[in-house]
Amino acid sequence: MLEPLRIAIVGVGAIGGWIGARLAARGHRVSALARGTTLQALRERGLRLSSAGKESTAQVVASDDAAALGPQDLVFITVKGPALASVADSVTRLMGAETCIVSTMNGVPWWFFATSDDAQGAALQSVDPGGTLLARLPPEHVLGTVVHAACTAPEPGHVEHKMGNGLIIGEALGGRSPRLERAVEVLRDAAFDVTVSERIQKEIWYKLWGNMTMNPISAFTGATCDRILDDELVAGFVLQVMAEAAEIGSRIGCRIDESGTDRMQVTRKLGAFRTSMLQDVDTGRLLEIDALVAAPRELGRRVGVATPAMDALLGLTRLFARGRGLYP
Asked: Which pLDDT does position 115 carry in this prediction?
């Protein structure tokens, strides 16, 4: 067994709970920064994981005080985008000189253009107004991660792993490093299917290209993915947004060679799938509109790509969410 690490999970929801439970099972000292009913559940019953017909319970150190948990080796940020600013100060209290932040979130992250030396390198106002996140959580501490798995959290402190086991991980600043190799070793030891990327931004953009339409359209229509794709007018609109995003990607070093139609066939295989954003609507959680739609739109303006379809998608989703108190 590997030398145990101090690992904190910030955001013990579906994905954070899945990762935390797996790592705790391998003997790592896993801490959970949590509050409210999640904090209570973790303290009383531990972190429960249901996967492949088996049930397990991991004991974690749960607290709402990051300073009490102390510096960590790895800090997984798995909160939803709207919550990131509110936990950033807590994350800094979990950091030592050698701490790695493992950014495990949907959409475009605050550090996305950490390697750019031109105007693209400025903070994205849609996800990091004023660049405060870049200042608090500098890219040189960050490993970016793309998750290919489906998990749900039916109740606080309990995660159900449905399908998928893939993690793609890479340095925010690109290339390879000893700390990246150590993180890969730890995750593979915990039975994750890990792929290393020397430019993780490409993997993030590719996943975004596939889910930046399904998520918001499902949210304001209430439709599952199969119904969205079965409507030829809506499917045509989806392809327009994807074409705009692909063009932006080609100008920021994240070229996509696959056709939108082929990517939609992959989505169709999921069947009557309820997206994470639709689940957030059901439970009254704030929607991740900025990282999924507003940030790509902002990038389009920076690199001179017109985005009329993306504009409409952002406007409709934002209007819907504001009417229900799910977006500022």
From this structure: 67
| Range 205-323 classified under CATH 1.10.1370.40 | no
Q: Name the residue ranges covered by the structural domains of the chain.
A: 6-198, 205-323
> Is the CA virtual torsion 171, 176, 177, 179 positive or negative?
positive
Q: Residue 292's Cα: distance from chain center in Å?
A: 10
Question: For residue 118, what are its two tokens?
Answer: 């031109």
Angle value at C-alpha 276, between 272 and 280, nearest 5 degrees: 115
Residue 146 — φ and ψ, nearest 5°?
-115, 130
If 0-12 CB within 10 Å is exposed, 13-18 middle and 19+ buried, where does residue 283 land? exposed
Structure tokens, 47: 């972190």
- pTM to 2 decimals? 0.94
CATH fourth-level superfamily of 6-198: NAD(P)-binding Rossmann-like Domain (3.40.50.720)
Report the alpha-carbon distance of residue 169 to residue 137 in Å, rounded: 18
Conformational region of residue 47, where left means phi above 0, alpha means psi within -120 to 50, and beta covers everything else: beta
Of 182, 196, 145, the closest CA to residue 6 belongs to 182
Instruction: Give catalytic residue positions.
Output: 207
Look at residue 30 and give its three-state secondary structure: strand
Q: Which among 58, 82, 44 has a CA at the least distance from the CA of 9?
A: 58
Residue ranges in the chain whose pLDDT is less than 50: 118-120
DSSP string, 31-88: EEE--HHHHHHHHHH-EEEEETTEEEEE--EEES-HHHH---SEEEE-S-GGGHHHHH
Calpha distance 118→122 (Å, rounded): 8
Query: Fold identical between 6-198 and 205-323?
Result: no
What's the rounded Cα separation, in Å, for the pair 278 and 175? 36
Question: pLDDT for 216-236, tens place per residue?
Answer: 999 999 999 999 999 999 999
